[in-house]
Amino acid sequence: MMTLGTALRLGRVSNLPTVATNAMAGSALAGAGIATDTLALVVVASVLAYIAGMFLNDAFDAGYDAINQPYRPIPAGLASQAEVFAWGYGLLGASVAFFVLAGWVARSGWPVSIAGLALALTIVAYNRSHKENAFGPILMGLCRLLIYLAAALAVVAVPGPTLWIGAALLMAHVMGLTYVAKSESGGFVGRWWPLACIAAAPVYGMMVGIGDVLMMPFALALLIADVFALRFIKGTNPSFGRAIPLLIATITLLDGLLIAQMGRVDLALLACVGFPLTLWLQRWVRGT
What we know:
12 helices, 73% helix
């Protein structure tokens, strides 16, 4: 039986602040006010989905890890593949149940449940074939987009363009960092599109921030953090181990930027607290 420490490693729990801020941002971008009880349920559902996805990632990659990453819990003998699969699918089922509950509490019907189910299916699709699937970064980005969508659907029946623009920016960032992570084994090949994806949100923030003074500090913070992270993959000796966890943490700054656009500076600042919190947690539990 796996220990709590092993479960925390498998779940990459240090990255959970980024999942919570995703739900906060999706709810804010709906533009109809935030229902605390519903948001809490969406956060729990999203956290469970993330942990489940990380468990399934290790379970599906057990053969690869045995050769390339023998320190991971399954090849290291800290948990069996069957046990990790069982926990992964169990947590994923619990996640869908919480999305259903969120829809019931919000009285928004089945759309939240459908978004939660779509998230679960996308997580499984990604983990089953991400090593050889060229569309892996798109599936990973879609997972985060679906958290935004589920949180928004718990507030409004039909999310407006602000939600979709924000979700597209989040998806682009995650696609870019996922490609960078996939390039780690062979070295970064220097394609322009992952960098463009990561640059999309800060560029958007700077452009909109020209007319919205509240957004500019958040756009600058995101820009500085992204540039600082990307400099680790420059040159002949790139340090993916430093770049990738930092790019994951900047998701909270992206969320803060989009929340600030909705005029909720208080909530945006709270989301940005997730940035140092994620980095601090990554010191104790690996984020990758």
